[in-house]
Amino acid sequence: MGNYPDLRDLTLPDGDGLTVGREIRTRSVVPIIMVTGKGDTIDRVVGLEVGADDYIAKPFHVRKVLARVRAVLRRTGSRPRGSDAAAQDERLTFERWVLDVAKRELMSPAGEICELTTSEFDLLRAFATHPKRVLSRNQIMDLLRGHDWSPVDRSIDNLVVRLRRKVETDPESARLIKTVRGVGYTFAADVKSGR
After folding, report:
1. How many CB atoms lie within 10 A of CB 42?
2. DSSP collapsed to 3 states, 94-114
3. CA atoms within 13 A on the CB side of 154
4. Quick check: helix, strand or coil at residue 133?
5. Bridge-partner residues for 194, per DSSP?
6. With contact defined as beta carbons under 8 Å apart, do 35 and 9 qualify?
7. Going from the N-terminus, what domains does the chain have, and what CATH number goes with each?
8. Which of 68, 78, 184, 70 is nearest to 135 (CA)?
9. Which residues pair with 32 in a beta bridge?
10. Buried b / exposed e across 140-166, counting CB within 10 Å, b at 16+?
11. How many CA atoms within 13 Å lie on the side-chain side of 142?
12. How far is 91 from 103, CA to CA, in rounded Å?
């Protein structure tokens, strides 16, 4: 998507455009323009409340759409790239570890940078943003979207083992990342967030 607006028709063959718009907004700050045949005021209000930056009712002239796209790009041009400005500056702390989301670094209680692969960092962030909740392997795969997972292999389990080796005092008796047999994993630490 980049920084280009996502033109989203509310009437989609495989789902509701409002739901899609809401889902995009939870993951990204990409500008969204709703395009629909529904011109009622309530439809416009709902579209804007779910996170759309503009709302265009059909029929419309192409020049009008281009003008609206340019206006939205001007308005949103100062937004940072990525999923969310606040999340980019966020630091998550647990058991004296510091996970710096903006820098994509993990600092140990001893003050040393712990080297993590991209997948390990993303997994730790997923756990730290969902503390004390049991996450199934499928939920973890969804949280790690963008990675190439196969539900039949043991990729998640192997990734958890690798991460435990780096953050657990004793990886054999895990205190932070606990296995919930037959279900998945839970991050047992208390997590605090801040900048």
Report:
1. 8
2. ECCEEEECCCCEEECCCCCEE
3. 5
4. coil
5. 91
6. yes
7. 6-76 (3.40.50.2300), 85-194 (1.10.10.10)
8. 184
9. 6
10. bbebbeeeebeeeeebbeebbeebbee
11. 7
12. 9
pLDDT tens-digit readout, 122-179: 899 999 999 999 998 888 887 776 555 555 557 888 899 999 999 998 878 889 999 9
Alpha carbon of 185 to those of 40, 161, 163, 166, 176: distances in Å? 46, 11, 13, 17, 10
Two tokens, residue 107: 């600092």
Model pTM score = 0.55
Token digits of residue 113: 């940078």
Contact yes or no for 83/27 (Cβ under 8 A): yes
Cβ-count burial 14-38 (b if 16+ within 10 Å, e if not): eeebbebbeebbeebbbbbbbbbeb
Asked if 188 and 178 count as a contact pair (C-beta separation under 8 A), the reply is yes
What tokens were used for 10?
């509310």
Q: What single letter denotes the amino acid at residue 37?
A: G
